[in-house]
Amino acid sequence: MTRDLIAVDRAGPIATVVLNRPEKLNALTKSMWRTLGETIDALSADDALRCVILRGAGEKAFSPGNDIGEFQTERGNKAQAIDYGRVMHATAQALAACRHPLVAQIHGICVGGGLEIAALCDLRICGESSRFGAPIKNLGLVMAYPEMAPLVRLAGPDVALEILLEGRIFGAAEAKEKRLVTRVVPDADVASEALATAQRIAEGAPLAARWHKKFARRLGEPRPIVADEHDECFDCFDTEDFRIGYAAFLAKRKPGFVGR
To answer: Within this chain, do residues 118 and 238 fall inside the same structural domain, yes or no?
Structure first.
């Protein structure tokens, strides 16, 4: 039953992962966090995949974050919270390390832990009525370093602090302004736009997509790029995909990349 709360739908090179608890607006439990991490790890290892869409079930919410009803038994004190945090942070690491591009398909509410998950995706597409925020100050809670890091990376420390200190819930236009989302579309178009985005990604060379993900994240680190890393930027020229893409360009036809 727990596995069903994280559902996976495969369509060729695209997988859709669903936070599947619509009766609770896809509020996350500890077991859901764990299963989500295991699911992302398994998909990341699958070379047949080229893109992963991550969404909440239904169109009312991506996720409002952690299920507060579970706090008494799973996060009632520091020791429990540390154990819960380990599960959350392992899943955050799985999302951050996923080799395939991640597209967040955001309907409705995207708050707290839901926002943390979306922030770990590479592209975030939401509807015009979507709402965002992290009002955990109202619970007297802190967003730990691994949870805050994606927000700081996207929005900067000052905006991340604004979100946490004020605890406001704000709309899609402001979320776009704060760089929390990459694209805002009419509510009725969120699913089709997320799928079209995933299809465009899947049509490209998968090795190039993985390298671009790796390079973009690496550039966010303060340590200098070393010689071996510079050298890796040219590994693509020895791939079969480069030969396929180059030949297709000259022949003015669509390339059929093979991921080698």
So the answer is: no
Query: Burial level of 132, CB count in 10 A (0-12/13-18/19+)?
Result: buried
DSSP assignments along 83-102, one per residue: HHHHHHHHHHHHHHH-SS-E
Nearest Cα neighbor of 121 from 181, 63, 74 is 181
**Which residue range forms the structural domain that includes residue 223?**
204-251
Calpha distance 184→186 (Å, rounded): 7
Q: Is 42 a domain residue? A: yes
**Of residues 117, 120, 125, 150, the one with CA closest to residue 6:** 117
Do the beta carbons of residue 62 and residue 106 sit within 8 Å? yes
208 and 100 fall within a common domain: no
Distance CA 190, CA 159 (A): 25
Q: How many domains does the chain have?
A: 2
Q: Do 247 and 125 share a structural domain?
A: no
Residue 121 and residue 232 in one domain: no
Q: Which SS3 state, helix, strand or coil, does residue 218 take?
A: helix
Distance CA 257, CA 236 (A): 13
pTM of the model: 0.93
pLDDT (tens, 9 = 90+) of the chain, 260 residues, equals 444 899 999 999 999 999 999 999 999 999 999 999 999 999 999 999 999 999 999 999 999 999 988 888 888 899 999 999 999 999 999 999 999 999 999 999 999 999 999 999 999 999 999 999 999 999 999 999 999 999 999 999 999 999 999 999 999 999 999 999 999 999 999 999 999 999 999 999 999 999 999 999 999 888 999 999 999 999 999 999 999 998 999 999 999 999 89
